[in-house]
Amino acid sequence: MNEQTIALEDGWKSALSAEFEQPYMQRLKSFLIERKQMGKRIFPRGSEYFRALDLTPLKDVKVVILGQDPYHGAGQAHGLCFSVPPGVRIPPSLVNIYKELQADLGITPARHGFLEHWARQGVLLLNSVLTVEEAQAASHQGKGWETFTDAVIRKVNDECDAVVFILWGAYAQRKAAFVDTSRHLVLKSPHPSPLSAHNGFFGCHHFSKANAFLEKHGRPPIDWQLPENPDDQ
Question: Which residues form the active site (predicted)?
């Protein structure tokens, strides 16, 4: 995959330029082209593969929230983990995230699932795998994206100071196990999925803990209250 052909935020493009030259990225590019030629619908659209990086430059990262795969329903995925475009039904895990936000900070749940307001403040909403095929969950796992997003997390770990890593579920916790806890705050809990949220996600207070850590280190806290109108982001 040639990074020169990819519209990517300049700071990230510079930081990750070596990754785009690696054989695994060339294989990934070939795989994606092949699947499209076979008529497969791939989500999100190509211009949004790197949306999380475009909205949250490396120098501005304050919080990292790790997801696993994009949503595989039509119209859902747009490049940010847990987020959906305006007008799309709020997914169950995000409903639970909103419940915890309300319990933790008294924030009234938004009536939409569009999280760009967080991303623009420095919340890197990063999936481990950046593409998926329609109605085929986890269909692009093991094709190279995990190696790329490992490199993204390593750049944040190495080049940023006082970042909060919010790791919901065992998958995210394994992926970011190398994060330097002497420099960053790592918050862990079960996943907000309805299958596991009652096992310790509810009551984790990760949003208030993240802001307390940021303020302690002289960094502006995150305004977790989403605009009522998603177009205001």
Answer: 69
Buried b (16+ CB within 10 A) or exposed e, 174-213: ebbeebeeeebbbbbbbbbeeebbeeebbebebbeebbeb
Residues 91-142 pLDDT 10s: 999 999 999 999 999 999 999 999 999 999 999 999 999 999 999 999 999 9
With 50 as the cut, is the pLDDT of residue 2 above it? no
User: In a 3-state reduction of DSSP, which class is residue 209?
Assistant: helix
Torsion of CA 113, 184, 58, 86, to 10 degrees: 0
pTM of the model: 0.96
CA count, 13 A, side-chain hemisphere, 152: 28
For 138, other C-beta atoms within 10 Å of its C-beta total 12
Q: Is 223 a catalytic residue?
A: no
- If one counts every other C-beta atom within 10 angstroms of the C-beta of residue 69, the result is 22
Catalytic residue among 10, 54, 69, 104: 69
